[in-house]
Amino acid sequence: MIRQLYQSIREYKRDTFLTPVFVILEVFMEALIPYTIALLVNDIRAGAGIGVILSYAWKLLAMSLVSLAGGYIAGMTCSKASCGFAKNLRHDVFANIQGFSFTNIDRFSNASLVTRLTTDIQNIQMAFMQIIRGAIRAPLNLIFSFFMAYYMGGSMAVIFLFVIPFLAIALFAIIKITLPVFRKGFPMIDRLNASVEENVKGIRVVKSYVREDYEKEKFGKASNDIRRIFTKAERILAFNNPVMQMSMYVVMLFVLSVGSKHIIADGTLDIGQFSTLLTYSFQILSSLMMLSMIFVMMTFSEESAQRVCEVLREKSTLTSKENAITEVKDGSIDFDHVTFKYTKDADKAVLSDIDLHIKSGETIGIIGGTGSAKSSLVQLIPRLYDVSEGTVRVGKEDVRNIDLVTLRDSVAMVLQKNVLFSGTVADNIRWGDPNADMEEIRHVCHLACADEFIDQFPKGYDTWIEQGGTNVSGGQKQRLCIARALLKKPKILILDDSTSAVDTKTDALIRKAMKEYIPETTKIIIAQRTSSVEDADRIIVMNDGRIDQIGTSEELLKTNAIYREVYLSQNRQGTENIEEQEVAA
Hints:
There is one protein chain. This protein has helices spanning 2-6, 13-45, 50-98, 102-107, 110-153, 159-201, 203-208, 212-237, 240-266, 271-313, 374-379, 404-409, 425-429, 438-447, 451-454, 474-488, 504-517, 553-559, 561-570, 572-584; strands at 333-340, 351-358, 363-368, 389-394, 397-398, 411-414, 423-424, 464-465, 492-496, 522-526, 538-543, 546-551. By secondary structure, the protein is an alpha/beta fold. It has a 6-stranded mixed sheet. Strand 11 and strand 12 form a beta hairpin. Helix 2 runs parallel beside helix 5, helix 5 runs antiparallel to helix 10 (271-313) and helix 9 packs antiparallel against helix 10 (271-313). The longest helix has 49 residues, at 50-98.
């Protein structure tokens, strides 16, 4: 885990290693100052003049300034190193997530990934800051102060040899009990974030069903669960403070009582030594207190570090082979007896024995009931998932032999759930081609019938789209996403029920424009409306993960019960025509 996190330090190694150097300088000066003061006290007691006192004053001032400079520089380098480390770590985690396949993403919830990128990395940053500064400062201060206390007080410093093991055992016991409690708390934060994400995305539904009180209660319960588990952990950690206080008082009582006896009774200890010994006692106990705080922070952040490393160690289940093919010849698609399961241990296959061959430039319609695996079928084309059995070929090549970037750059998908990103209308369209000029953008928007509403916006193509496209309607989002896909000019265009929110006239205009604008592109149209696919070259009827039948609209009306039922339920005129044909027959 440490080795994994160390890789994210990179360009901040210099600041990381400089921090302990300046901390050592700071601590060394802090250890010398009480000793110098003890010498000053003894010299004053011996009748030293103003000249001697001033020389001590200059020495103390110089040591204080050096200590101050060391602490200041250590603080700066520590801040730079810890913030830079956190920045690199976020980048590494986010970059690794970008390479995940859908199978990898399914292992982590969206809310959990957000928590790991924010809260967990922040915990790691705080722990890293403590490690390179506090974890160096406290032990060094402890060692230097103990050495000086022994030098000044002799056998009286032995008290620390009893206190330190006692504190170590107490801290170890506290950490051992607390760590499992913290581990239970972080998944609760994930669930809380998931609840917030779900509520914000579905706020219109929440308000339309007047479920605000229910959502508040659900959120309150999740929040209270987090409060309860972390309160339990903090209660255990709270024992750290009284243990430290008790140790401090024991040491102070010992030093005061034994030290006073040596001064008054036998004179083996002078005032300068005694005052210095008290100072070193405070420094030793302060170091122990700081160490206990570092242990608490490390305990809290250990689970965060494990969770972040879990994402960093995750390797994509889909990768390009060495010397992979970097060109897709055409838009032909072949499914050779394909079977697909989302997980290896799934009892039932989502797709079973799919044998389908599509020529480049064909327009293929796919229709079927909910759960018939229409979307699962097309997701295998750009290799969002790998087949369980059989082979998927694009351009006559197995998709597993094609470079992933090349393959996906040749396929454009307009998903069932349309996604727009924060930015202008033009920015969103340019996802299809980052180098497109405004003339090309306007052209594809015209083809997608999106220009009719874009031109009505006060700022036109510079209109800002909110995250997720919340400030445009469903039909407008669909047309913007279609325009984005058209700008890409792909070899394969997949429309996954992407015109469901537009009227049939606009749907027909979009299909006509696609046919004329990208005639050589293979077009696959998944639809619930038969009118969206009836002019396709062929229509595939899906049923329970299998191909029920393939044919034209006219052929399927005569021979396929599923297609005919859907068609008749949507088209009254079609019903009358078919009834007339049946009577005539």
